Amino acid sequence: MLILGGTTEARRLAADLASRPGVRVTTSLAGRVSRPGPLAGDVRTGGFGGAEGLAAWLRERRVDALVDATHPFAARITANAAHAAAATGTPVVLLRRPGWRAGPGDDWHPVGSLPEAADLLPGLGDRVFLTTGRLGLAAFAHLSGLHFVVRSVEPPDPPLPPDTRLLRDRGPFTVADETALLREHRVDVLVTKDSGGAATAAKLTAARDLGLPVVVVRRPPAPDGVPVVPDVPTALERLARLDGLDGLGPRPR
């Protein structure tokens, strides 16, 4: 089994699979985080060399199934995984946590990209809490009239907006923590990607409670023909339907 990604779901799936007799699981990490958390089973770091390189790796290791559990915005590796799986006849599953949904009291502004988010900001606020990760901040670098608070696990790649305060931190975060941060930095607009999951959702609740607008970057679509599952138990159920892998269903509760 090959799992792509260092997400929470990837770690949970690897731990489950690695504990099963006769299953060898390898998790592949992109290498963008300098100190990743522990992972069960085998671990490799770095790219494969595109779809062709991944296809070669699948053939050489005689991989029975591929699970793409990368971040919902890792569009390139997801596309490569779909192409490599099709080229080699390897069954593939896309494990993608459900996205966030706006509720009563939310003031969300959905956009299709980071540049679209940057275009909206001047009309929404002057002090921006930017939580889109360390990549892609160049889309906001031209906004010299705004103050940015940028939160990232790793140091962000330049260029950055000229007026930027960097916070190095990793979730999960509580609503109380996020509310205190928004108040301390006098934030009046939040920008985030629709990553989904609970680890970083508290900022959305805090923004709603404070009446702040939220610019939400929509996810890229999943590749055509690739089955998408929302969680680890469903991924295991899907894998269990494959020939020779009938022992991979969810454990009895």
Automatic annotation (TrEMBL):
Keywords (A to Z) from UniProt: Cobalamin biosynthesis, Oxidoreductase
PANTHER family, alphabetized: COBALT-PRECORRIN-6A REDUCTASE
Upper taxonomic lineage: Bacteria, Bacillati, Actinomycetota, Actinomycetes, Kitasatosporales
UniProt xrefs under NCBIfam families: precor6x_red, PRK08057.1-2
Record EC number: 1.3.1.106
Keyword Oxidoreductase carried by entry: yes
Pathway as given in its UniProt record: Cofactor biosynthesis; adenosylcobalamin biosynthesis
Molecular function GO labels: oxidoreductase activity
Pfam families noted in UniProt: CbiJ
Listed name of the protein: Cobalt-precorrin-6A reductase
InterPro entries given in the database record: Precorrin-6x_reduct (IPR003723)
Top-level EC class: oxidoreductase
